[in-house]
Automatic annotation (TrEMBL):
<feature type="region of interest" description="Disordered">
    <location>
        <begin position="1"/>
        <end position="94"/>
    </location>
</feature>
<protein>
    <submittedName>
        <fullName>Cms1 ribosomal small subunit homolog</fullName>
    </submittedName>
</protein>
<dbReference type="GO" id="GO:0005634">
    <property type="term" value="C:nucleus"/>
</dbReference>
<dbReference type="GO" id="GO:0030686">
    <property type="term" value="C:90S preribosome"/>
</dbReference>
<dbReference type="Pfam" id="PF14617">
    <property type="entry name" value="CMS1"/>
</dbReference>
<feature type="compositionally biased region" description="Acidic residues">
    <location>
        <begin position="1"/>
        <end position="10"/>
    </location>
</feature>
<dbReference type="InterPro" id="IPR027417">
    <property type="entry name" value="P-loop_NTPase"/>
</dbReference>
<dbReference type="InterPro" id="IPR032704">
    <property type="entry name" value="Cms1"/>
</dbReference>
Length: 279
């Protein structure tokens, strides 16, 4: 009878059930391990995957800000250096060097040597102690006699070249003590058409011209200005604008100046009929 009950008990057990206390203990350990796996802190892994992304984004933002601050510091430093640097007066050697640097890429060695101007064609440069009137009186002490003998139209005796129309007006106002009764003409493009300037040069005798190299070039091209009677060519060399740039520090102005020199100025200098001054 006991055997029958035992057989009946075995038959009623579910498939895979433990047959002994040892098996039951094994099943308990399996359940414990499963519970531990289910309760394991899975979010810790997600934190590890997100953390590098957050660090990377913060680092990239700081790098951009640092770069911007660095650029601002550099600009301020350059301005401070220019503002604190002592101004040095221009010399004929400065002009000669700029010419060589400008033409070195497209001229041969022989052609570069031909650009060299004799020392005799240069007037005494401004040592930064002169006003425009006092400088012009020093380099041209016989101006009154020269202007009285000048009667050719479409020409001037003296050209003063500067970087802008506003600067030209300043120079005209500052040379009152020198010019006297001389006829002065504005040779720049602002508010003045080139055709009007050509007509004025054809109608009357002009002694002094003050303007920009671009407009002077255009007047020469259109036949409104003849350079042969020209005796003095003065560059507004040492003056600096709000950005502390001299006339020849501005690429556009420097290019126009050298193009103007090639339109007959260099040949007149070599023949010693024209003198160059650096104010």
């Amino acid at each position: 009878m006991a055997d029958d009950l035992g057989d009946e008990w075995w038959e009623n057990q579910p498939a895979g059930a433990a047959s002994s206390p040892e098996a039951s203990d094994g099943e308990g350990r399996g359940d414990t391990e499963m519970m531990q796996q289910e309760t394991a802190p899975v979010p810790a892994l997600s934190k590890k995957t997100k953390q590098p992304k957050e660090c990377f984004l913060v680092q990239q933002k700081e790098t951009k800000e640092d770069a911007t601050k660095t650029r601002k510091r550099r600009k301020k430093k350059i301005t401070d250096v220019l503002a604190k640097s002592e101004p040095k007066p221009g010399t004929p050697e400065d002009l000669q060097k700029l010419m060589k640097d400008y033409y070195s890429s497209n001229r041969s060695v022989i052609e570069l040597e031909e650009l060299n101007l004799p020392d005799s064609c240069f007037l005494k440069a401004n040592d930064l102690t002169h006003s425009l009137s006092s400088y012009l009186k020093e380099i041209c002490p016989k101006w009154v006699k020269l202007r009285k003998n000048h009667n050719e139209k479409k020409s001037v005796l003296m050209l003063i070249i500067c970087s802008s129309a506003l600067r030209a007006l300043e120079l005209i106002r500052s040379m009152t003590a020198f010019r006297g009764d001389s006829k002065v003409m504005k040779l720049f493009a602002k508010h003045i058409k080139v055709q009007e300037q050509v007509k004025l040069l054809e109608k009357r005798v002009v002694h002094l011209g003050v303007g920009t190299p671009g407009r002077i070039k255009e007047l020469i091209k259109q036949g409104g200005l003849n350079l042969n009677p020209l005796k003095f060519l003065v560059f507004d060399w040492n003056w600096r604008d709000q950005k502390l740039r001299r006339m020849m520090d501005i690429p556009e102005i420097r290019k126009e100046v050298f193009e103007l020199l090639e339109m007959g100025v260099l040949s007149l200098c070599k023949s010693e009929s024209l003198k160059l001054g650096l104010f």
